[in-house]
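Write out the 3D structure for:
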Amino acid sequence: MQKWIMSGLFFAACAFAVILMFTLPGKEQVAEQNNEAIPSVTADPAKAEATVKANCITCHGDQLQGGVGPNLQKVGGEKTAEQIYSIVTKGRGQMPSFKDKLAPEEIAHVAMWLSEKK
């Protein structure tokens, strides 16, 4: 009786593994989903600063010196505009996603502006 139960469980596990192999996304698909392309915009520091003042200073400070969030005064030396765009869009750690609060172009302006801070 135990052999039948064990063989049934083994068969179910194998069937489940085969189903997962065909339904889970591959590495390429995951990479594409994780790489949101930054919209092509002309850098506008005034728009970026206004967006930062309205949305970011609560956590990152009025001079981007940090607080609840990290210091962003030299973030451009560590991250590219694309990386910053991805973090602001999706959120990371304690930082919330801003994709539902800001337009992609607004996030792009902020990302380009912050990427120049080195």
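The chain has six helices and no strands.
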